[in-house]
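Below is a filled-in request sheet from our internal design queue. Each sheet records the structural input a requester submitted and the sequence that came back. We keep these sheets so that new team members can see what a complete request looks like end to end.

REQUESTER: design group, bay 2
PRIORITY: normal
MODE: inverse folding
CHAIN LENGTH: 360
BACKBONE (tokenized):
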């Protein structure tokens, strides 16, 4: 590389302190306006519901498998990127979630056996079916309480019912159905994503939050100072430090991390660079805790994502906030209910009318 080329691609020449050498978003800054699902006639709201549903399955399974948050985040990235290449009508959410979890454990080197992953998802499957019944009423949006449970059983009765369920045999048709669905999805995901997954763990926004917080001195040595302007040369727009005591700074950091976790449930990881998501998480957390961050001579986020990124930052913030909307029926359904697939070739392997639905 020539010196001119190196200079042109350097972080300072672009007004950003982060050097991006790998493009982690689809088609770079020319983000696709449609997805394969929307091309197949699936409304954006329904597509969002199924994306949220899939990531909620990954979240529940990762807890049962005692996996690190990084594995969960990696599985979500794989899941979202797959559905930017395939339609929800061509692959059901459950099998893709299974395949994404299996691949994430391999990429993060926190391997679990095929059987243990299957067992975790089977438990989630039984839990959701038990809590919400086996009818199709859950697919309607008529009442928000439908997203919180259709059964009249108490919590203790539901837990006792789950305890009485016999463990899945290590062999047999039930295990074979789940295993085959997972391995088939794993192969299709790898083919769809070009067998290139190694970069994902290093591109999570969580990693950038820690770095950005250190630069902004959130909870650092200057944590008690108020944000100030300044004319210091070569400060890249980060003038001064955050304003607030150590307790507030700690709350900001925790809230930033929580918002970053929420972002995994959306496809922000496909549409925006991780720096944008990290900045959005810090911005939301600082607003929640009235923690002052520098806006003079330039907004603090410009030091990390460059100028002219306010629209992307705003869109990311709105998408993350929408996840926490308690009045959103789809949010509740995705977390607790069984959402039937949109599979075009009839019911998927564990949908109503399937073999597993009748025996699981």
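RETURNED SEQUENCE:
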């Amino acid at each position: 590389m020539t010196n001119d080329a190196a200079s042109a691609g350097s972080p300072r020449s672009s007004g950003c302190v982060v050097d991006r050498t790998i493009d982690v978003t689809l088609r770079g800054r020319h983000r696709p306006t449609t997805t394969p699902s929307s091309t197949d006639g699936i409304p954006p709201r329904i597509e969002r519901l199924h994306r949220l549903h899939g990531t909620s399955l990954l979240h529940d399974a990762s807890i049962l498998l005692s996996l690190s948050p990084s594995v969960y985040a990696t599985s979500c990235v794989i899941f979202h990127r797959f559905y930017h290449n395939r339609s929800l009508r061509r692959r059901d959410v459950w099998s893709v979630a299974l395949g994404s979890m299996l691949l994430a454990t391999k990429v993060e080197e926190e391997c679990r056996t095929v059987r243990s992953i299957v067992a975790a998802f089977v438990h989630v499957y039984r839990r959701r079916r038990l809590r919400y019944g086996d009818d199709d009423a859950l697919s309607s949006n008529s009442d928000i309480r439908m997203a919180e449970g259709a059964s009249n059983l108490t919590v203790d009765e539901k837990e006792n019912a789950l305890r009485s369920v016999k463990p899945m045999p290590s062999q047999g048709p039930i295990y074979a159905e789940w295993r085959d669905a997972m391995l088939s999805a794993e192969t299709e995901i790898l083919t769809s994503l070009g067998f290139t997954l190694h970069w994902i763990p290093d591109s999570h926004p969580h990693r950038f939050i820690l770095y950005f917080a250190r630069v902004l001195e959130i909870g650092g040595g200057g944590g008690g100072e108020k944000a100030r302007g300044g004319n210091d040369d070569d400060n890249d727009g980060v003038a001064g430090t955050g304003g607030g005591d150590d307790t507030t700074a700690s709350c900001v950091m925790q809230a930033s991390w929580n918002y970053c976790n929420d972002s995994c449930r959306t496809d922000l990881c496909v549409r925006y660079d991780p720096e944008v998501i990290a900045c959005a998480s810090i911005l939301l957390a600082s607003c929640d805790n009235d923690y002052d961050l520098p806006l003079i001579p330039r907004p603090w986020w410009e030091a990390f994502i460059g100028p002219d990124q306010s629209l992307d930052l705003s869109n990311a913030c709105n998408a993350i906030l929408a996840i926490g909307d308690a009045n959103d029926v789809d949010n509740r359904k995705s977390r607790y209910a069984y959402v039937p697939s949109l599979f075009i070739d009839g019911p998927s392997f564990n949908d109503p009318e399937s073999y597993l639905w009748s025996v699981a």
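SHEET NOTES:
- The mean pLDDT is 78.
- The chain is about 50% helix and 0% strand.
FILED BY: M.R.
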